[in-house]
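Entry: 5-hydroxyisourate hydrolase
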Amino acid sequence: MSSSSRLEAVKNHLTPMSAHKSPITCHVLVASTGTPGRDVNVKIEKMDNGSFNTLSTAQTNADGRCPTLLPAGYKAEKGIYRVTFETKEYFSKQGQECFYPYVQIVFELANPEQHYHIPLLLSPYSYTTYRGS
């Protein structure tokens, strides 16, 4: 990674949430290599009337982050959301096999005024997640 790429990654990580940053963000770290999961396709959905409806699709940046996961101007509402990471596609691009073709994380957004961050620690044969800050 070049010094300008590292500087941009640090800047993106430290920039406070602003009007254009999504109230729900995600981050992929490939734990098996200790590197960001860049260019991972991500989809976010919200449950309405028992079915999930797609709100947006995005791709992680060079730092493995999706700071604009929800569409610009989207006002988060209480409810159940699902984030899907296209992990098989990601590992295939790396020339690796994986066990989980995608990872879906379902969570409940109870306080729309708060920021919700969904980190994914990933390897070809395992993953873990938690509510980040």
